[in-house]
Amino acid sequence: MARCYGYGPVTFRSFDSFQGLPAVEPGDYEIWQEGQFAFSRPDFERVLSQKGFKRSDYQIVEGFYNDSLNEELIESLEKQSVKASIVYIDCYLYVSARDVLAFIGPFLQDGTVICFDSFFNYRGRADMGEQKAFEEYKARTPFLSFRPYMPYSPLGMSFIVHQEVEPAPQSTAPDSPKT
Ligand SMILES: C[S@@+](CC[C@H](N)C(=O)[O-])C[C@H]1O[C@@H](n2cnc3c(N)ncnc32)[C@H](O)[C@@H]1O
Known about the structure:
- The protein is 26% helix and 18% strand.
- By secondary structure, it is of the alpha/beta class.
- The strands form 2 sheets. The protein has a 4-stranded mixed β-sheet, covered by helices on one side.
- A hairpin with a 5-residue loop joins strand 5 and strand 6.
- S-adenosylmethionine binds at residues 16-17, 20-22, 37, 39, 64-65, 90-93, 96, 99.
């Protein structure tokens, strides 16, 4: 999209274990398994190169999110004044989406698009998977609003983040006389 619309310069940041999914808790409608979707980092970089990405176009953060999405990384990205245009969450599991959402806060800006690739997994239930993590995140961030944007695949859904303006303090001045 960045290329298509001549938008840039953009750095793509990819966060992945390259070992597939972490441990999966058994549960209703759960079909995923530990290690599923494993794709090696060299193969990933080969695909990027074939698609025309230069090494300077992207950064890879390798590791499981509960370890890799840490304070040190947040500080380093903040020092670079990184802000996200698009956050693409394609990690299927509740725990994974939860860790991603806990990480992205400092990088959101008015207009950031958040895409959940498997939003309607688990028969579309709001108390499971990516939706569960998102519901919890929304409850923790009343200062943000999430405008539903586009469903973009059978299971995908996107939202646009807006920063809500703090409500103006109530005036303590006495009411002006009514005429
Ligand atoms: C369905 S694949 C999608 C990969 C990529 N977005 C694509 O479309 O090809 C899900 C990816 O999420 C990664 N993943 C899921 N949970 C993760 C976690 N907790 N930590 C790191 N990577 C995770 C897996 O390794 C896997 O590569």
